[in-house]
Amino acid sequence: MAKELYNNILQRLPSALLLASIIFGILYLQNNLIIFILTFIVGLLLTKEWLSLSETKINLKQIIFFVAPVALSFYFLEKFIALYLFTATFLWFGYSALLISKKSSFINSISFKNNYLGIFLMLSFLFSLIYLMLFLEFPGMNKFFVLFLVLFNTALVDVAAYLVGSSIGKTPLFPEISPNKTLEGFLGGLFPVLIFMISMYSIDLISLELLVISMLSIPFTFSGDYFESQLKREQNIKDSGSLIPGHGGIWDRLDSHIAVVPIFVSFSILGI
Question: How many helices (H) and strands (E) does the chain have?
Answer without folding.
Answer: 11, 0
